[in-house]
Amino acid sequence: MARAIFMDRHALAEPPAGNAKGADLLDLIRRLGFVQLDSINTVARAHDMILFSRRPTYRSRNLKRLYERDQALFEHWTHDAAVIPMDFYQHWHLRFQRDADLLKSRWKNWRRDGFEQQFETVLQHIRDHGPVGSSDVGKDEKKGSGGWWDWHPSKTALEYLWRSGALTVIGREGFQKRYDLTERVIETHLCPGNTPCDASETVDWLCNAALDRLGFATSGELAAFWDTVSAAEAKDWCNQALTKGELEEICVECADGRLRKVLARPGLLEQADTVPTAPGRMRVLSPFDPMLRDRQRAERLFGFYYRIEVFVPEPKRTYGYYVFPLLEGDRLVGRIDMKAHRDCNELRIKALWPERSVKWSDARTRRLEAELDRVRRFTELDRVVFARDWLKDPK
C-alpha cells in the first residue's frame, strides 16, 4: 500500500506514456513539485532522465522551451538546484530571505571574502549590458585553483544575488547559468519586495504541498522536501493539523516488515485501493529521481540501498561512478553501469548487478534490452553494446 501510494504521487504507477510538451509537461513537473538539475552527463542529464522515465516521448528541447522561451519555470534551490513551476514563485520569497541571511555568513568562511563589495557593480553591469554568465563579470579578479569554492568575488556575488532573489536565472548555455535582473523577468507584483512575505502562510503552503507529493510523511520528511521549512516549523505545523483533524497518524509497512508511524490526510488508506498497479516494464531511473531523493525513505519502502559514488575514489567504489537504478513494476530490481560514447554512437553497458532478492531471468533480460533500446533512441545513439560478463552477481 505505502509503496503504491508513493509511486503514484511520483507519476510512476501509471504506464510511461503521454504527451511530453508544453502544458502537459508542465503539469507533470507540477505533480512532482520540481525537477532537480545536475551537470553529469554519462548518458543524459538527470532532469532529462527524470522526465523521460515518465514520458518516453520527452526530449530535452521540450524542457528548454518551457523554461527559457515560455518562462513557465524558474530555477532555484530545494535541496539542490531545480526547475520549479512559476506558479510556485511567490512561495520562494521566504527562501530568498533565508538564503540571504544564511549564505552571507556561510560563504565568508569559504574563501569568498570581498563578494559583498561586488553586489552593486554586478547589478549595474547587468542593467547596462543585459543578461550575463559568470565569465562576463570579474574578468580582472583572481580565481583560486581549489574548485567551485574558489569562485572569484563577482561570480560569488552573482550566485548570492540569485539565491537571495535580486537576480533570476533565465536559462543555461552549455549548462552555465545566465542571470538577469528579477524585475525584468518576473511579473512586477510577484517580485521580492513588492509582495509581503508571510512566513506562516508560506510554511503552510510548503508543508501541504510536500504532503501532497509524498502521500504520507513524518514532520522531518515534510521539512526536507523543499528544504526551506525548518524541522521545528514542520513539527509545529503537523501538531496544529493533527489538532484540527486535518491529519491523522497511521502506520505503514516497510520493506522489512516493520511498521512506521507517519502522518497522512484522513482517508488515505481508503484511497490506496484506487491506485493503479505499476506496469511491469523495466525503467532506468536517474540517481536523482524524486522517488530516490530521500535515500532512507527509498530504502525503507523498497529495501533498496543506494548511494551515488561520483565522489568516491574508484578503488573504493562498490558499483561505479554513476550507476542507474532499475525499476520493474513496483520493485527496484538492480542497478546498471552504462555510458553514452558519442564518438562511436554507442550506449555501452559495463555491468548490471541484480538485487539479492531478484532472480535475473531471460525474460528480465528482454525487458532490460527493450528499455535500453528506448534509452538509445532517446540519446540519439546507434546501438547498445554489452561488455563481456556484464551480468554480475548480487552484492
What would your notes on this structure say?
By secondary structure, the chain is α+β, with helices and mostly antiparallel strands. Helices cover 37% and strands 18% of the residues. It contains 14 helices and 13 strands. The protein has helices at 2-9, 22-32, 46-52, 60-69, 93-108, 119-129, 153-163, 182-185, 199-214, 219-226, 231-244, 268-271, 295-302, 362-378; strands spanning 35-36, 73-77, 81-85, 167-173, 176-181, 216-217, 248-253, 259-264, 282-284, 323-328, 331-341, 346-354, 383-386. A five-stranded mixed sheet has the order 9-10-11-12-13, with helices on one face. Strand 7 (248-253) and strand 8 (259-264) form a beta hairpin. Helix 9 crosses helix 10 (219-226) and helix 10 (219-226) crosses helix 11 (231-244). The longest helix is centred in the last third of the chain and has 17 residues, at 362-378. It starts with a helix and ends in a 9-residue tail after the last strand. The model has no long low-confidence stretch (mean pLDDT 92).
Alpha-carbon Rg, integer? 22 Å
Shape: globular
The biggest beta sheet reads:
5 strands, mixed
Sequence of secondary-structure elements? HHEHHEEHHHEEHHEHHEEHEHEEEHE
Unreliable spans are none
Question: What structural class do helix, strand and pairing data support?
Answer: alpha+beta
Give the strand order, joined by hyphens, for the main sheet.
Answer: 9-10-11-12-13
Mean pLDDT equals 92
What separation lies between the terminal Cα atoms? 28 Å
Counting DSSP H or I runs of 4 or more residues, the number of helices is: 14
User: Considering DSSP H and I runs of 4 or more, what fraction of the residues is helical?
Assistant: 25-40%
The tally of beta strands, per DSSP, is 13
| Beta-strand content bin | 15-25%
